[in-house]
């Protein structure tokens, strides 16, 4: 491991910091996000990076950076023992996992505790309980949280198929240790059930090393509603209201909003109460998200619990005014919850669009390239969560999500209008992204009316497809973008010194 250090922030915290130094076991935009809160709290930050990321933005933002080794960048970020050793070597007293990578790895949380460090998240036992979908489902059912009719693994595929068919169709077959849509199949008839179970089992073994699958009633045209919860580990928990995450492709979210669209207050209260009940029963500690499937008839069922900070947490921050990373740090230090339930209120509406390096016209296939120009919309109601910089190579080493455009409005209509305008203003050249596609999603009448469900993308595929762009329009767009890039403008028009160095401050 190699390390570099820069001068720590000179800002003085208003209250004693809960930790002196925190290592962030992650990268990219979430690492930058955590660093910002650490800086505000007067806590020193430590970034980790593979050698190919040495010039990355999160590395430059941190007070200290440590290089970690691995055959691939992902392998390095999944090496928990090396990361714990890095934290010990630099004198960190806590580790924040971000999301993805090792954030929901019970073994990693346990290793951190054994090393005498604090894990900014729940304990290993809770992660293990909720990380297994079957144990989580059983726990939820035992504590009065609604679950869909289901069949658990039997060890005998013939018996499993027979019991699953008895529930009735359609069914959803899911991997017990799964996530991200892997090991998941919808079955609509008995004739396809056995083969679907075999395929799901094979995928579960390949992706998670655990071939257990289970089947549950599939809710047609469901909405995906999740509730942000905070727990103090002593049986006390609160919710920060819900998020709508129904617009997805390949079972993965691309648009999230808070609060959920067109959700009756009584139903909101019921769903949020169920999430708090689960978190309190588990004596949950730190930030977590309880996810539900909501049917058109108003019935909702427990889906899973994510024992980490979510990608979409900024929309909750925008409508509640709470800093979730700060809350995580305070709870991990034993300082309790940041507010009472009565103190948490909704103000306005927020929408998050995930900007991904992918081509919606080719079934959202990931794209690679290098960022030639980045123009970011700016306004008091916009957060552009990213770790991007001009010239940065976008490779297949990591997830294709590049950034998150988060926009606030006084109500949902204003949030939609502002989000659409911001998407059109965002310029990212050098790699294909889904930016224009997201703008079409937000402008679709069904989205504006709140008619959302997890099949939204498939149902409106033809209306959301991009139209053909003529060559002249494309050329004009590229010229306009190039002229907005200052260095290109000065070279093209031979702006003499010292005027070129004056930059934007000229008459």
Written account of the structure:
The protein has 507 residues and is of the alpha+beta class. It has four domains: 3-120, Rossmann fold; 149-217, Dna Ligase, domain 1 (2-Layer Sandwich), CATH 3.30.1490; 223-464, D-amino Acid Aminotransferase, Chain A, domain 1; 471-502, no CATH class. It is 36% helix and 24% strand. The chain has an eight-stranded antiparallel β-sheet, sandwiched between helices. A six-stranded mixed β-sheet has the order 1-4-3-2-5-6, sandwiched between helices.
Describe the structure concisely.
By secondary structure, this protein is α+β, with helices and mostly antiparallel strands. It has 20 helices and 24 strands.
Blueprint (SSEs and pairs):
Blueprint: E1 3-5, E2 21-24, H1 28-40, E3 44-49, H2 57-61, E4 64-67, H3 73-77, H4 80-89, E5 94-96, H5 106-114, E6 118-119, H6 124-131, H7 133-142, E7 150-151, H8 157-167, E8 171-175, E9 185-187, H9 193-208, E10 213-217, E11 223-232, E12 237-249, E13 252-258, H10 265-281, E14 285-294, E15 300-306, H11 313-320, H12 324-332, E16 349-356, E17 358-359, E18 365-366, E19 369-370, E20 373-375, E21 382-386, E22 393-394, E23 401-409, H13 412-425, E24 427-429, H14 435-443, H15 445-449, H16 456-459, H17 461-464, H18 471-483, H19 486-492, H20 499-502
Parallel strand pairs: 2-3, 2-5, 3-4, 5-6
Antiparallel strand pairs: 1-4, 7-10, 8-9, 8-10, 11-12, 11-14, 12-13, 13-16, 14-15, 16-23, 17-18, 19-22, 20-24, 21-23
Helix pairs in contact: 5-6, 8-9, 13-14
């Amino acid at each position: 491991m190699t390390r570099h250090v820069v001068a720590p922030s000179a800002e003085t915290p208003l209250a004693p910091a809960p930790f002196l130094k925190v290592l962030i076991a992650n990268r990219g935009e979430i690492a930058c996000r955590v660093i910002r809160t650490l800086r505000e709290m007067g806590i020193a930050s430590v970034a980790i990076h593979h050698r190919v990321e040495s010039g990355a933005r999160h590395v430059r933002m941190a007070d200290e950076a440590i290089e970690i080794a691995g055959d691939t960048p992902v392998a390095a970020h999944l090496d928990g023992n090396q990361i714990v050793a890095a934290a010990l070597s630099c004198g960190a007293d806590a580790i924040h996992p971000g999301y993805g990578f090792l954030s929901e790895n019970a073994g990693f949380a346990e290793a951190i505790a054994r090393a005498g460090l604090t894990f900014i998240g729940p304990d290993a036992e809770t992660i293990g309980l909720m990380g297994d979908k079957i144990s989580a489902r059983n726990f939820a059912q035992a504590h009065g949280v609604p679950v869909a009719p289901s069949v658990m693994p039997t060890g005998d595929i013939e018996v499993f198929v027979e019991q699953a068919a008895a529930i009735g169709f359609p069914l959803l077959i899911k991997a017990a240790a799964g996530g991200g849509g892997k090991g998941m199949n919808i079955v609509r008839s008995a004739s396809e059930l056995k083969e679907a179970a075999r395929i799901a089992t094979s995928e579960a073994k390949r992706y998670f090393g655990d071939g257990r699958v289970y089947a549950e009633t599939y809710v047609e045209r469901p909405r995906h509603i999740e509730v942000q919860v905070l727990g103090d580990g002593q049986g006390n928990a609160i919710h920060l209201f819900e998020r709508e995450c129904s617009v997805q492709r390949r079972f993965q979210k691309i648009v999230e909003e808070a609060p959920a669209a067109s959700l009756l207050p009584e139903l909101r209260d019921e769903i949020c109460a169920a999430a708090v009940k689960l978190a309190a029963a588990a004596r949950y500690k730190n930030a977590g998200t309880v996810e539900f499937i909501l049917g058109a008839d108003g019935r909702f069922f427990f889906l899973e619990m994510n024992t980490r900070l979510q990608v979409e947490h900024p929309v909750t921050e925008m409508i509640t005014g709470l800093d979730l990373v700060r809350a995580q740090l305070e709870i991990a230090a034993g300082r309790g919850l940041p507010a009472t339930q009565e103190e948490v209120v909704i103000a306005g509406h927020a929408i998050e669009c995930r900007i991904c390096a992918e081509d919606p016209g080719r079934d959202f296939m990931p794209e690679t390239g290098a960022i030639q120009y980045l123009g970011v919309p700016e306004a008091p109601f916009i957060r552009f969560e990213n770790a991007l910089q001009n010239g940065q190579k976008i490779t297949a080493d990591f997830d294709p999500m590049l950034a998150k455009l988060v926009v606030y409005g006084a109500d949902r209509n204003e949030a939609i209008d502002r989000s659409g305008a911001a998407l059109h203003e965002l310029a990212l050249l050098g790699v294909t992204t889904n930016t224009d596609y997201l703008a079409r999603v937000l402008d679709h009448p069904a989205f504006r009316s709140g008619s959302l469900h997890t099949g939204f993308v498939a149902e409106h595929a033809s209306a959301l497809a991009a139209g053909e762009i003529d060559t002249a329009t494309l050329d004009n767009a590229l010229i306009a973008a190039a002229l907005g890039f200052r260095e290109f403008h000065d070279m093209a028009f031979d702006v003499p010194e010292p005027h070129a160095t004056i930059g934007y401050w000229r008459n």
